[in-house]
Specification:
With 65 residues, the protein is mainly α. The protein is built from 4 helices and no strands. The radius of gyration is 13 Å and the shape is globular.
Length: 65
């Protein structure tokens, strides 16, 4: 999501969006796709961001399993 659009959403809209992402299990899928893009060289990110995504992936996976 474009950062500018995210800032335009109200806190309630942001919460609703996150709720849908989690309840539909899209959040884990999106993070998985992002990690695959990074690992396949399709996307360049800082190492710290990669580590944060990995941590988030495993945390969400543990909570939903």
């Amino acid at each position: 999501m474009d950062k500018q659009l995210l800032e335009q959403l109200t806190p309630e809209e942001q919460k609703l969006l996150l709720d849908v992402l989690f309840t539909q299990h899209y959040a884990l899928e999106l993070i998985s796709c992002e990690l695959a893009d990074i690992e396949n060289g399709n996307k360049q990110v800082e190492e710290e961001r990669y580590k944060q995504l990995m941590h988030l992936y495993y945390r969400i996976r543990e909570e939903t399993m």
